[in-house]
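pasting for the record
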Amino acid sequence: MARVRILLQRLSHVATFDDARRELTDADILVEDACITEVGHGLKPTAVDEVIDGRGLLALPGLVNAHQHLYQMSMRTLPQLERSGFVEFLTALVQVTGERWRAGRFGAKEVYAFSRAALVESVLGGVTTVADQQNIFPGAEPEPYMEAAIRAAGDVGVRLHACRGTATLGRRYGGMIDDAMSEEVPDAVRRCRALIDAYHDPRPQAMVRVALAPAGVSADRLEIFEAFAELAAELPEVRLHTHLHHGLDTQVAQARYQTSPWRVLCERGFAGERMWAAHVVTGPRTEIPEYAQAGIGVATTPAVDLKLGWGLAPVRDFLDAGIPVGVATSGSMVNDGGNLLGDLRVGALAHRLASPDPQRWLSARELLEMATRGSAACLGRDDLGAVAPGRSADIACWDLRGVDRAGITDPVAALLFTGLSTVASLVLVNGRVVVRDGRHQLVDEAETAALVREALGLGPL
């Protein structure tokens, strides 16, 4: 089969985030099928299928959202959660999901519509890979929710790490989860194994991988952590993911087990180099060397952590310890969006409160590296996160010529600090043009939004 070759020519600025952290001006990128083959100057447009004019564009590796809850995009701006803590959030999540499920409005069809919309929003913002964690699987034999999200990702043209979650600590075991919304541990393990067998692709350039992702100590029985660790050890490239050290699971671990949630994970064999954790805000600083020694990654979620009042994760301390740090939006129920670039701006500003020393503030390049190389490392993807030969052809480009970026000196910093133009002009995923001139090329955006309203039983706007 003939190879498809695309040349991005005369890009105004390329921040490669390669091993040398090179930045190039007036540069070219040659893509062949799913991979980047050349990055440099003056590449000749011979035997290429398409030449794309890159003048005026800033190119980066595709952003990687290391922790999302796609289905929650249907629960944005709930009035009762505008000013609430996590207990109120969790109560509302279970209540609203349960009401919709009982009314026949939380099935695989609805999750497909919600996931598709959230993924279109993501890729329009330059995100080319999303790690989606779904924890709620109502009913004795749940509908194929994860399969619906995987199908949505295929239609939208983005990579998906399908993080199959659980919520096994139902009320019958003294937890906060409605028993109809929780699973028994053996059932969850069986369903996860079936999902891995059907969809997990361990090869480089994989568009779908599956991770095992219990919600966390506050929502799961301890047996699930041990069972998932054993399952992951048997299978190539299957990683482990969970929430760690947000306000509630820290409290629950102390009350139920007289220790920290990190210690619980260690005792159950869940903590190790295949694991990455979301949030990690409220843990004691003394545990940070242990995270580094264990080899885990951290997906920091600055906007959500601030909205829920948890504060700031000690990101600089994580980086100093050599811990891979990625960036994530978490779910739209608390973030109200999947705009990773907007959350990077929040992080750039908020983390200045963490230290009076400006040299310890997170720079724009550090944050963007976290959202590319760092998030890719959390997901175990050494084929993503950089514009370099041999890497997957996931490239996001933003137009620097708008009036909101007039007068800029540093185009990379301008992406975070100037204007509100977060929509990417051009996005390639696996060598395929998915966004062109700021419009999605594979699905209709208006139809995608209308599907969400239909799934919710709402009329047209």
